[in-house]
């Protein structure tokens, strides 16, 4: 397809979206007939502006706060979002970014077994659990 055909398709698509948005707005809101042309024009221009924004946003690659290889220390995990050193990453992700560990791993292209807890902290918790008898089968 040549550029002219793509532009015509994009324009038709934007016009259809404009019709849908304006129709939905007018069916739920009181609007004077003299305000309708302005609403249509404003909506169409806003959609045109958004089309350009999407293209820019898609081109920007994600850059972690620290290199992934340096994000796991013995006593801490570094958050790739903000560079904070933490013992447990899961709660920080949920409270600060409203993100699950799975979403975090997917966003940064991390393997499924990427830890959410610092290695030494995990060992310490494991030893404590074993010490108090957790993880044993009942007799």
UniProtKB/TrEMBL annotation:
One protein family per Pfam: ROS_MUCR
Coiled-coil residue windows: none
Source species, domain of life: Bacteria
GO molecular function terms attached to this record: DNA binding; zinc ion binding
GO BP: regulation of DNA-templated transcription
Similarity annotation: Belongs to the ros/MucR family.
Protein name: Transcriptional regulator
Lineage, top ranks: Bacteria, Pseudomonadati, Pseudomonadota, Alphaproteobacteria, Rhodospirillales
């Amino acid at each position: 397809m040549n550029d002219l055909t793509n532009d015509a398709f994009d324009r038709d698509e934007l016009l259809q979206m404009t019709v849908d948005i304006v129709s939905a707005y007018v069916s739920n809101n009181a609007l004077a007939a003299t305000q309708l042309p302005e609403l249509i024009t404003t909506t169409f221009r806003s959609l045109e502006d958004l089309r350009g924004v999407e293209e820019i946003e898609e081109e920007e690659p994600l850059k972690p706060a620290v290199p992934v290889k340096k994000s796991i220390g013995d006593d801490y995990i570094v958050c790739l979002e903000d560079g904070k050193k933490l013992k447990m990453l899961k709660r920080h992700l949920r409270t600060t970014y409203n993100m699950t560990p799975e979403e975090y791993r997917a966003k940064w292209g991390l393997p499924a077994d990427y830890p959410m807890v610092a290695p030494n902290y995990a060992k310490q918790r494991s030893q404590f659990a074993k010490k108090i008898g957790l993880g044993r089968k009942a007799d």
